[in-house]
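Data card: per-record layout.
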Amino acid sequence: QREIRGLLGARRILRMYSRLSLLTVPPARLQARQSICHCDNQGVVPDHIVAASLLYLFRDESLGGTSFFVPKKPAHVISRLLHDASTMTREAFRRRHRIAPGYCTASNEYFELAGTVPARWNRIIFYDGGIFHSAAIAAPEKLTDDPRTGRLTHNGFFDCTRKAR
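The structure for this 165-residue chain is written out next.
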C-alpha cells in the first residue's frame, strides 16, 4: 500500500470506496459520456489526488483490459467535450464532436491512445485517477449480463493527500 501510494504521488488516504462493475451495454446504446475516455478526479481539490485500482474478475481476456489516453487538445477544449458528453443527447454530441456511440478503444481527434493494459484473471492495476482511461472493449458482442462469464471488475477509488514535492 505504501509503495503504490508513493509511486502515484499520494501521501495519506482520506477516503476510499469501491464498486463492482459489469459491462453489458452494446456500443450503439451507450450514452455520449460512455463513448469517450474519462478520468476519476473530477471535483478533487488541488492538494489531493485520486488513486484508482481495477481488479479483473473474469477469465476471458478477450473481454478487454484498460486503455489510457493523453489529451491532444488544450484543457479548455477537453473540458467542453466532457461537459457536452454529460449534458447532450448522444445524437447531438455525435453531430457536434464527431464521436459516434461506441467504446473508446483508439486515438481520436481529442485523445491519443498511450497504451493498453491487457486483462488477466485476478490482475489488479493501480493508476492515477487523473489519467484519462477507458475499458478496452474490442469484442463488444461478447459482453453479457452474467457475472460468471461477463466483464466483471472491482473498481477502487482512494482520495489521498498529495505528497510534498
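Known properties of this structure: The CA atoms of residues 36 and 42 lie 15 Å apart. The chain has a mean pLDDT of 94.

See the next section for split statistics.
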